């Protein structure tokens, strides 16, 4: 029997997680699915199911071919659990996931998610630029759907973090929200409109630590309504999922 060799550079699985029938493996330096992940996953399935039912007939009648799939993007996918959970419920969903942490991208891919390394939406801007100058790019490079995504998900790093509170390694990306905890949230709200379909929606998970009123104000400032679609008490904070649609 041949000896199995292990490359020291191969990612190491540190744990496996299962929730409501969806199983993922989690690699080193990747955020382990927890209460916030499961809350987002449950909200995503419920809200997308409602959206699919309510907009399906209209979107096909007005501007789509019957076989055009609904599209979704998860920003900051981590292990890929939320995306995998969605795909288990909506197998025809055209879903792309991105994360700034390359280990998270490897992890999500290992868990069956079409994931790419990107700082938020940067990968789509790069792809758009290359296409605009007719530069050959790989077929696997993701691009924004012509009319935007139906659903965009973001469970951001929301903990207020000073320099001495940073976590070592790439895992810091999952926790570090800047001094106020709002760095990634505010950037997301400024940029998300460029990638969202006119009748689409996004789900944003925040903590009571981050500030619900401040986030709602920022959403409205950027042209979005704000609806609380899920909450969960969790030790010292309350987790909140906000749904945003164009005003």
Itemize the secondary structure elements and their pairings.
Layout: E1 13-19, E2 22-27, H1 35-62, E3 71-75, H2 81-89, E4 94-99, H3 102-110, E5 115-117, H4 122-132, E6 149-154, H5 183-191, E7 196-207, H6 212-221, E8 227-234, E9 237-244
Parallel strand pairs: 3-4, 3-6, 4-5, 6-7
Antiparallel strand pairs: 1-2, 7-9, 8-9
Helix pairs in contact: 1-2
Mean model confidence by pLDDT: 85
Structural class: alpha/beta
Q: Looking at the structure, what is the overall shape?
A: globular
Oligomer: single chain
CATH class descriptor name = Alpha Beta
Order of helices and strands: EEHEHEHEHEHEHEE
Largest sheet: 7 strands, mixed
Query: What's the CATH architecture name?
Result: 3-Layer(aba) Sandwich
| Rg over CA atoms | 18 Å
Number of strands: 9
**Strands of the biggest beta sheet: in what spatial order?**
5-4-3-6-7-9-8
Number of domains: 1
Uncertain spans, ≥5 residues at pLDDT below 50? none
* CATH topology-level name: Rossmann fold
Strand content: 15-25%
Q: Can you tell me the CATH superfamily?
A: Vaccinia Virus protein VP39
Give the N-terminus to C-terminus distance in angstroms.
65 Å
What does this protein look like?
Keywords: Methyltransferase, S-adenosyl-L-methionine, Transferase. GO terms for molecular function: peptide chain release factor N(5)-glutamine methyltransferase activity. InterPro entries: DNA_methylase_N6_adenine_CS, Euk-Arch_PrmC-MTase, PrmC-related, SAM-dependent_MTases_sf, Small_mtfrase_dom. Its EC number is 2.1.1.297. The chain is α/β, with parallel strands linked by helices. It has one domain (29-59, 68-244): Rossmann fold. The protein has 6 helices and 9 strands. A 7-stranded mixed β-sheet has the order 5-4-3-6-7-9-8, with helices on both faces. A hairpin with a 2-residue loop joins strand 1 and strand 2 (22-27). Helix 1 packs across helix 2.
């Amino acid at each position: 029997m041949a000896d199995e060799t292990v490359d020291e550079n191969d990612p190491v699985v540190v744990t496996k997680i299962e929730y409501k029938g969806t199983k993922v493996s989690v690699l080193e330096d990747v955020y382990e699915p927890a209460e916030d992940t499961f809350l987002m996953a449950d909200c995503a399935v419920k809200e997308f199911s409602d959206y699919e039912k309510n907009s399906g007939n209209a979107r096909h009648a007005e501007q789509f071919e019957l076989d055009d799939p609904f599209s979704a993007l998860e920003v900051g996918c981590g292990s890929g659990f939320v995306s995998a959970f969605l795909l288990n419920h909506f197998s025809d969903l055209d879903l792309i996931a991105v994360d700034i942490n390359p280990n998270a991208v490897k992890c999500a891919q290992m868990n069956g998610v079409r994931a790419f390394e990107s700082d938020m939406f940067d990968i789509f801007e790069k792809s758009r630029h290359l296409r605009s100058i007719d530069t050959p790019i790989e077929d696997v490079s993701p691009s924004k759907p012509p009319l935007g995504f139906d659903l965009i998900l973001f469970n951001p790093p929301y903990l207020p973090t000073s320099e001495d509170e940073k976590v070592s390694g790439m895992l810091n990306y999952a926790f570090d929200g800047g001094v106020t905890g709002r760095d990634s949230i505010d950037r997301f709200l400024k940029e998300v409109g460029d990638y969202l379909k006119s009748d689409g929606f996004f789900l944003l998970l925040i903590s009571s630590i981050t500030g619900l009123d401040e986030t709602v104000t920022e959403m409205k400032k950027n042209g979005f309504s704000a609806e609380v679609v899920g909450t969960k008490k969790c030790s010292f904070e309350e987790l909140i999922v906000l749904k945003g649609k164009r005003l």
